[in-house]
Fold:
Amino acid sequence: MYNLQSIDNGNSHPHVGLFEKGELKSVTPLAQFQFDQQIDAIASSVGPSKNLQSISYIDLRPYRKEESFLDMPVDYEMTLGEDRLHQAYYIFKKAHPGLSLLIDAGTFTTVDFIDESGMKGGYIFPGVQTFLNSYSRGDKLPSLASADNFTIDFDIPHSTNAAIENAMKISQLSWLEKILSSHPIEQIYLSGGHGSLFSKALEDLFKGNVIFEKNLIHFSLYEIYLYLKNNKI
Structure:
């Protein structure tokens, strides 16, 4: 097992995971992390490239081909975000039977489909906080903090806050219910800062296996690193 510094340079809150002998020991904000030049680093980057300018790391972009990433077939154009691609690879390598759904609930909520034939594509929805923040563009409308749950009050709202919060919850659950009713999902992986909200909602909506791992991107990068090392790439 290897030591590794895994870099998640996301749209917000970039951070670094430290693996020691294959075990994730810590996750630290990128701005506070002290890199060890004796340990390999690997990055998944959808955020500003300036964050990585002074860091020596394995760049995974050359391994993305038009229809594949490493040994995973990919049915999506080359614009697919690195975070989606790398987490999909982790699920692909776990070789679960049937169709898996990956929900990464961050600044945007991405929803991707993966099975034994590869990464099949998916959706991009406004993230929970992104949805709520959009109301600040209206005159006298507040920008609310994220909700603690997705429980909907189906009474007609009688305040602006209730109107916005319940609209957000209905919006998030509507696409989730539609996807679950339209596809034979066998298991769901959750990651991202708002993954716990979906985890709670899925207790009532989905009877299959749900895996919530907020550090999924770091385990994904480690899985990719293992493949590169084992295949001497």
The mean pLDDT is 91. The helical segments are 82-94, 128-133, 160-182, 195-205, 216-230.
